[in-house]
Design brief:
- By secondary structure, the chain is an all-alpha fold.
- It has a domain of 49 residues.
- Helices cover 48% and strands 0% of the residues.
- The termini are far apart.
Length: 94
C-alpha cells in the first residue's frame, strides 16, 4: 500500500488533492452517494405521489351503527344523508 501511495503521489498531474488521501476520498464518495440517494428517493416519492400511490391519507371514515324501528328509518337516513358512502344493511330484529 505504501509503494502504491508513493507512486500515486509522485504522479500528481491532473489528480485532485482530495483523491490522494484515502480517508478524504472515502468521505467524498460518501457525500456523493448521500446526495445521489436523496435525490433519487425524492424523485421516486414525488412520482408516486403524483400517480396517487403516495403515503396514505388519514382516515376520514367512521362506522356508525343505527338500530331503529321501521317507523324511524326515514329519520335515520336523513341524519346520515351527508355521508359520502352510506351502506345500509338489513338486519333481523333482536
Amino acid at each position: 500500500m505504501g509503494d502504491w501511495t508513493y507512486a500515486v503521489e509522485g504522479s500528481r498531474a491532473g489528480i485532485s488533492p482530495l483523491l490522494l488521501n484515502p480517508a478524504l476520498t472515502a468521505l467524498c464518495g460518501a457525500l456523493i452517494g448521500l446526495i445521489t440517494g436523496a435525490l433519487i428517493g425524492w424523485v421516486v416519492d414525488y412520482t408516486l405521489t403524483c400517480m396517487g400511490a403516495g403515503p396514505p391519507l388519514p382516515a376520514h371514515e367512521t362506522l356508525v351503527t343505527v338500530r331503529a324501528n321501521e317507523d324511524k328509518l326515514d329519520q335515520a337516513y336523513a341524519a346520515l344523508s351527508r355521508a359520502r358512502h352510506l351502506h345500509v344493511a338489513g338486519g333481523a330484529p333482536v
